[in-house]
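dumping this here before i forget
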Amino acid sequence: MFVGNLKETIQLGRKFAKGLNPRSIILLQGPIGAGKTSFVQGIADGLCIKEDITSPTFALSHHYNSGTIPLIHMDLYRIENSSMATEFFISEEEEAIQNKAVMVIEWPELIKPVLNNFWKIEISYATNLGRNYKIWEPKNSLTFE
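structure:
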């Protein structure tokens, strides 16, 4: 799917949020600057979250509880190895389960082996200045337990 600009990226995220349930996991993959956080801004808007959504690159995660479904936004870019990433993910997953939150994870490559059921979205640069989105649905259901 082609997305031409920031406004369309946010609209796509907003539309995507309508199909999410509490405890959904979304893995976002793409190069720096591809629009991962902008897509999450759209998801948050679709979940009626009114807080400003910013990249959690340095904080590693941000939690937003003001919407219809809470959102945990993680960014694993700065984590250097799989065991650290997995430990951090498990800690955040426990909180997501308790709060029935949606989890969005940027740079998920280090934790994929511990996940069974998730949305996967790959964002790439298009030749005509926009972005291409490939979206895979979970194999079984939309939630984790």
